[in-house]
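W.,

You were right to be curious about this one. When I first looked at the sequence I had no strong expectations either way, so I just let the prediction run and decided to look at it fresh. Below is the sequence, 377 residues in total, followed by the output.
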Amino acid sequence: MTPKHFVTRFAYGFFLLFALAGIFNRIVDPAWYYRDTVIKGFNAVKPEFLSFEQRVKPALLVRDQPEALILGSSYAEIGFDPTNPFFTDRGRMKGMNFAFARAPWEKVQCHFEYAVTHSKIKRALVGFHPGDLPMADCEKDSESIGDIDTIDLLFTYSALDFSIKTILKQKESDITHTPEGMYFYYRGVNPANYFRQGLEARSASCGNSKNNPGKAQNLNLSGLRRMIQSAQAHNVELVLFAYPEHAYLLEMDYLCGDMEEKWKVMQQIGSFIDSESAGKIPAWQFYGYNAVTAEPVRNSMWYWQDSRHFNYEVGNMFLEDIFAKSRSPENNPVFARSLNTSYADFLNERDEYLRFHPQFTTNMRWVNPKFSILPRN
């Protein structure tokens, strides 16, 4: 064999393997981008999707053109099913959960800007934490949003590695996301342990000013103003909500002396939204002490994964409260209220619940023995 023949055959062999690797990655689809080949026991479960989520979700938004979006951090990604009939107007709109784990407010704002400029969305439900909601440099950040490269997906060693891992993990992995983007996180994995860790961390920070959401009069809400303006400019029905918390965490805030300031922050945000939108954009909060938010902490829980991450069963209640055409909150275990609800009403609800549920204190002490020595207001 001459050197020329050797080089030619080597080149043909290399490109053949290269093409086969691309075909293999295309079929396995570890990034869950193509979504046209599903083989149970081979590639039906996508355990590596999280590695691609930041790039794949925006690309899917552009391709699929959903009309109703959920946006926010992991709390929204885990807690809301975008196929919920109340959210989608009984299926009249295509829903997508466009929230991302660990996304700060600035990212959420940029994801919203990306959505209104790349998809003809009609409705957006956006979660936030009470506190500063500053302006983000979305023009700069948007350069990397939705940046999908076919070479990266099909013809790199990383893609091949992810494909092989996807196949090998089929039997040991559970489904992590729904096709519409909702995240299951660690649902069903000993929530009592996660509650204990979270409340111990909160107990350790009790009295630490860094835990306080900030003085209401000094809030930076420039990013929230920009989101409201974008929604109005693109004729998007924008609904805002403060992330709920389990009643144990609310109780820790109260015992640590932070709840009143937190409520003042929420009230200012609610007033700001009313002012900026002329009362046309609703703002919701679901803080309270009731059968859902105060679900007893056990090794198996239905509504919560930890003191902040709620399951979609809770989210479904919120969505019904928010979007049902005829609301009947007296029949719902979670009562929707505006962000301007008085702090006194919240305290009255707390007092009444604790009066008729003495086991709340006992169970909370089981989860976090330190709570009883925290300072009371």
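Here's what jumped out at me. The longest helix spans residues 3-28. And, maybe more interesting for your project: Strands lie at 68-71, 95-97, 123-128, 237-242, 283-285, 337-338.

Coffee later to discuss?

I.
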